[in-house]
Amino acid sequence: VHQSKLDFFCKLGYGKQDICKVLENLGQEALEDDVLKELIRMGSKPQALESQAQPSPLKLVARGSCSTLQGLKLLEEDESDTSDHLRPIVIDGSNVAMSHGNKEVFSCWGIQLAVDWFRERGHTYIKVFVPLWRKEPPRQDSPVADQHILEELEKQSILVYTPSRKVKGKRVVCYDDRYIVKVAYEKDGVIVSNDHYRDLQNENPEWKWFIEQRLLMYSFVSNRFMPPDDPLGRHGPTLNNFLSKKPVLPEPKWQPCPYGKKCTYGNKCKFYHPERPYQAQLSVADELRAKIRVPLSLGKEEEKHNRLP
């Protein structure tokens, strides 16, 4: 009996010494309620309550430093979040290079400008597709400028060559546009090109919608890569929302009423009235009543103050 009571109160968290003292005083035949009352009267507490009562020692960390592991984990999560909310970028290398070279020279510097622009915005997934025959020495009918940039981008795993080969002296080239659209569609990214890919739109209805909604056109202004601020038109999303997976909706802008204070539409007016606080669409009669009530209420308060001794 003694051992069973000892085990029971030990499970509750009380110390063995306190339990043995109470059992010696009350006897082994004492009821559990009596033992519990005696333990409480003695002031002994369970170990779980004692640990909660004692505050945990605080660790001082230097201001502005992230010396703890939790701080490092939070920083890593923040960095991953900034790159995760941006869409993957798939660049039509031939289109960009020829646009920068005024459709006369395959300018590899134009591809570098486009890649740098997206890197500065924080995009981590950037792929450029170029036909493999552009790796060959340039000819008079197809000049190439700054060809070493292609090698550098290939080492960085950004540039991808689409396959091509020669059969009986003739070059057989795979359709690189299909690679571009397919990768962008699978990655749910953005296509950077001035080409509309009409043949691929007719080929696949899903690609048609994707090309219409995810095609980012651009311009080169004095060696500066410049996409439009409204990629889908005046009433479409902004460039930041277009390139992000989680677009931020703009706050609604109210258009001021052309009639101003002379407006007679009252609460039915759809325009903004700055003279109405908190956009309260009141009728003209309600506004006049509100203006009359304010001075009357002020006058009554003054009379009450004057009557007081």
TrEMBL record:
* InterPro entries to which the protein is assigned, alphabetical: Rege-1_UBA-like, RNase_Zc3h12_NYN, ZC3H12/N4BP1_RNase_Reg, Znf_CCCH
**UniProt entry keywords in alphabetical sequence:** Endonuclease, Hydrolase, Magnesium, Metal-binding, Nuclease, Zinc, Zinc-finger
Q: Can you tell which superkingdom this protein's organism belongs to?
A: Eukaryota
Q: Where is the signal peptide?
A: none
Give start and end of each C3H1-type domain. 251-276
Q: What Pfam families has UniProt attached to this entry?
A: RNase_Zc3h12a, UBA_6
Keyword flag GTP-binding: no
- One GO CC term on file: nucleus
Sequence similarity: Belongs to the ZC3H12 family.
User: What is the name listed in the Swiss-Prot or TrEMBL entry for this protein?
Assistant: ZC12D ribonuclease
